[in-house]
Amino acid sequence: MSIRVKLSILSILAMLILLLNLFALKFAENKELQLAEEAQLRYLSFQLADEFRQTSQDLTRLGRSYVVTGDERYKDAYWEIVDWRSGKIPRPDYVHKELKPGETIVQTELMKSLGFTIQELDLLARAGQFSNDLIATETQAMESIEQGLIAEGPFQADEGETVQAFASRILFDDNYHSEVDKIMAPVSEFFSALDRRTANTLEESKAEAHLWRNISSAFSFAIWAIVAVILYFTMQSILNPLKKAAEAMSDISEGDGDLTQRLSHHGESEISDLAKAFNAFANHIQSLVQELHNTFGNIGHSSEQLSSTAQDTDQAVQQQQKMLNKLHTDIDNLVPTVKSIASDAQSAAADAQESNKEAQQAITVVNGSIDDIQLLSQNIRSAADVVSELASNTNDIGSVIDVIRGIADQTNLLALNAAIESARAGEQGKGFAVVADEVRQLAQRTQDSTQEIQNMIEKLQHGAQKAVGSMTQSAEQAIASAENANSAGQSLERITSAISEISTKNQAIAKASDEQSETILSVQNSVDHIQQQVANTSAGSEKTTQNSHKTQALTEQASQLISRFKV
């Protein structure tokens, strides 16, 4: 079950209990209001009962006062009480403010409106009946005083008894007091019944209000318990796993960059999904760092091999430079020899008249020329072999350059992949992005350098091919010169028989020597060109070595950055 569902269930349960708590509080408030109303009703009931008792006592007091004094005010006050109690006139203002002062209402009806029970009303009715009986006595006494004679009523005057004595007797004798006690007896019983009923009602309302207050307290405790459960569940299911996730992310982003950190996960909650996603991300980053570490190791190894190859190439080029210098020196030495041959041939033509001595000298010179030409041919062939080897080496350099270009392309691709992965990683991948950008720029500069070297090598190969062609032609010409010299030697052997033929041959030799001199100069120019190409190749090899060292340094720097992560 997911955290959202669990929290939703607990929240719904808390809301239900809260609603029940509000209902209980409302019910308790209603009961407390009812309790207050019952208390007020009890108070008004006692006030009304006391009003009944007090008015009964007032009637007795006013009736007696009138009989004794004859003051009309007592009689008027007496009948006023009787009238407003019976609902004939409005109730006076001095009654309690909650007992409808100024309204015309029978006192018993007011008692009913306050909820007096039938038993209580019966008691008051008995008291009222006794009071009415007493009013009849009091009325007879007051009318007798007012009329000056014995009025009709429940009592009869004694023989010879005056009106004043009669009125006083019936209001002050034991019978009158007995009637007053009859009135007070049901009134007292009424007060007791009213007190019991209202007290019980108050206690019941108080008990019910207390009960609903307790229920509300129980619901409040339940709500707090659920809140505590939610907080505990939040701590255990959300905050603690999030704290562990934050600690794991801190271990990755700080210190040694521990990419072996993993989060434990159980169930199918959102935190479990977060832990799974974090573990998958950590696995991906760990694999990526391992691949980058291996890749930079391969790049460093390739850079070392490239540097070693460039150094070997530079050494081979320097060796070729030495050989070309020697070839240049040999050619420089060959030119005077050829010129000397031409001079000797011209002298032989001029001195054709000389006999065998000159012929023998000419044969000797020709034989020397043959040896020199053969040596020249061998040197030209050696130079052609060197140039061919140079062309072969440039092809090997081209292969190495292809390897370097492939490594640069692979490095550029890896840098691009690293940049993409670092972009996915967000803030944590900024360091990878900087290193990947530096590696990509280095790969681009390596590609540019390899392209420049490739262009130079192509020029060198083209020049080498031309040099090989020229040297091959020179070798052929040297062979032809050797054959001509041989023919000249044979001619010299026959010098004694054909001076003119010797002269012709010497002229041919002189001409051939001139041509040979020109050919040697052409070979010398070709060698100079090859030396220039070799120098360019040496410079390119040196630049390749420098780029290899720079690539190796950047690779080591990137490897050091990556080695900070624990994989």
TrEMBL record:
Entry superkingdom: Bacteria
Q: Where is the Methyl-accepting transducer domain?
A: 295-531
Q: Which GO terms describe its cellular component?
A: plasma membrane
| GO MF annotations in UniProt | transmembrane signaling receptor activity
| UniProt xrefs under InterPro entries | Chemotax_Me-accpt_rcpt (IPR004090), HAMP_dom (IPR003660), MCPsignal_dom (IPR004089), T_SNARE_dom (IPR000727)
Entry's Pfam families?
Answer: HAMP (PF00672), MCPsignal (PF00015)
Q: Any idea where the HAMP domain is?
A: 236-290
Keyword set, alphabetical order = Cell inner membrane, Cell membrane, Membrane, Transducer
Which SMART domains is this protein grouped with? HAMP (SM00304), MA (SM00283)
Location(s), subcellular: Cell inner membrane
Membrane topology per the record? Multi-pass membrane protein
The T-SNARE coiled-coil homology domain, residue ranges: 286-348, 490-544
The Swiss-Prot or TrEMBL record describes its family as follows: Belongs to the methyl-accepting chemotaxis (MCP) protein family.
Write the protein's name: Methyl-accepting chemotaxis protein
The organism's lineage? Answer: Bacteria, Pseudomonadati, Pseudomonadota, Gammaproteobacteria, Cellvibrionales
